[in-house]
Amino acid sequence: MNEIFIEKDKPYLRIAIKDHEKLLACYIEEETEEAVPGQIYLGIVKNIVPAIKGAFIDIGKAKDAFMHLDNNRDLKKGDYFLVEVLREATELKSANVTSLITIPGTYVVVNPMEKALKISRKISNSKFINEVKEQLKDVSTYGITVRSSAENVDINIIREEVQALNIVVDKIIAKGKYSLKPQLIYDDGGALGRILRDYINDGTKRIIVDDIKNYDLVKENIEKLHSSAELIMHEESRGIFDCYSIEKEILALRHKKVVLKSGGYIIIEKTEALYSIDVNSGKSTGEVAISKTAFKTNLEAAEEIARQIILRNLSGIIVIDFINMKDKKEKTEVIKILEAAFKKDNNKTTIYPFTDVNLVQITRKKRGKDIGSFLEESCKHCGGEGARLKWDYLKLLIKNQLIKLKGQHITKEFVITIDSKYKSEVQKKLTEFITFIEGHDCLLYLLYLDNFNSYKVEPVIFDSQRKNLQEYKIY
Fold this sequence. Notes:
Layout: E1 2-9, E2 12-19, E3 22-30, E4 40-49, E5 54-58, E6 65-68, E7 80-87, E8 96-98, E9 103-104, E10 108-111, E11 117-119, H1 126-135, E12 143-146, H2 155-178, E13 183-186, H3 190-198, E14 204-209, H4 212-224, E15 230-233, H5 240-243, H6 247-251, E16 257-259, E17 265-270, E18 275-280, H7 290-312, E19 316-321, H8 328-341, E20 349-351, E21 359-364, H9 371-375, E22 376-379, E23 386-389, H10 391-408, E24 413-419, H11 423-428, H12 430-436, E25 443-449, E26 456-459, H13 463-469
Parallel strand pairs: 1-14, 11-12, 14-15, 18-19, 24-25
Antiparallel strand pairs: 1-2, 2-3, 4-5, 4-7, 4-13, 5-6, 7-8, 9-10, 10-12, 16-17, 17-18, 19-21, 20-21, 22-23, 24-26
Cofactor: Mg(2+)
Keywords: Hydrolase, Magnesium, Metal-binding, RNA-binding
Protein name: Ribonuclease, Rne/Rng family
């Protein structure tokens, strides 16, 4: 039974999914005026660059988006057409868009630029496949891809969704046709929209939200899907992620090292071209034979690696260096574990066989930023080479901890300890900082420590404490 936690606290929307008390997936979305994956825009071709087989498209944002050109597309400067955002812009790169727009639903995806009826490869039930081909062949004027989530659903429910999405597509095309300038045409709901489509099912036990707008949206989807999930409005001032002990699990995703139950561990590292994951036996030496230890550790690591890839939203090329195994049957078992673990993943993932040097390559479709992009930022004090917890994210953690302590203690005096790397941010906008953390009704002291890779919020109870902290008083 899964549980969904949806927390809205500016500038972040954070969503966590737990399955039997274990964190299954996590999504963070930051408020932005920039184009985000899933949105559809009316764009105009500004420039075509044959050398890189691409074109720059004005979609009404500060920076033109980039689109790869396929051999069948005959574009010229000044052309208007609809594009879907595949990847958001970064400091160095433009947003990536495609003319092959898609409108996803819970059970199907409508492809306006195609005519074919496709069925997810994850569906193996031949009876269902034949029924889909027969019942849906004339339902849509556009192409359809039937998702794996449709396999155990009544065909009439699937037909209804196809018809509803066809109406959405018609409206998108009409709006694009009569718009006079590049602009946003359709928003699929971002991270929350994806969660409502992908995770609300018969196994959803409860959904907890803290925002009335999101509450109404979730309620509408629960009713539409005939789900029995309990919907709870979280009304405490303390954040959902803090109340339900999710915060610690998310912060743990910053760590490169993940320890396995057997005593082994994996190391996850990011390079410019790919992610590398190294499996080590560590203290996992209980077995007599080294080969048995390697196999046992690799099996455990394979399951955890899949979980970490989904949790951290890693994408692109991922290379796993397993502990050396010579037995082909053992290698096959490890691949089977990976494949089974990724069946829960809604992203397109391809797993390649072991190479001669015991490497396994995985390619995973990019769908939004990795979690690290929301949690960390480059550190100016390290010459831009190091990373620190994002200041906006750290303020959110301090705020939740302060709210928690105010509810537990009579005192309204607190001392906050953070790394000295954040000193300039606090001093530049001190009043804004105090307002954000809801410290306006408190007496606050702020300590800066060098190389302090954490934070603390503690109550000031004794006079001796108070006397020593006077020079650090900020409010």
